[in-house]
Amino acid sequence: MINRRNFVNRTAGTAVVASAIYGVERAAAAEPSSRSPAPAADRSNAVPPSAHADLKRHGTIFERKIHQVGGHVYSAVGFADGNSVMVIGDDGVIIVDTGPDLAAACEVAAEFRKITDKPVRAVIYTAFHVDYINGVKATTMSKPAG
What we know:
Blueprint: H1 4-29, H2 53-59, E1 65-70, E2 73-77, E3 84-88, E4 93-96, H3 102-115, E5 120-124, H4 130-133, H5 137-140
């Protein structure tokens, strides 16, 4: 039986998925603009020398590195604004969030490939904003661009 609550619950999930798919299609079709983020290699996460010593120590947790956070779970930190995560399964991997641009995502993909060569079976977005989804092409490339 469909009532208002069931209808909202059913259509809300569909709307979120449709919104995410629409966002991916728009991001893939978007032309680079002057407001596009700098390629990953051009970004600097360096802490200025004038920063307080405690802040400098805290900044080291954002160094470009792959952290093993669980048995088969790895997090790429410091490659972009947010972290990308790889979960290794029996026959492939799941990538959670792909980053803001192809350059950063290719760097992350290359690092993840050093851990396993299993194919990407799924990509999960925790949000539909471009800084979560724009690197998705790197997950489908057989070799990183560049």
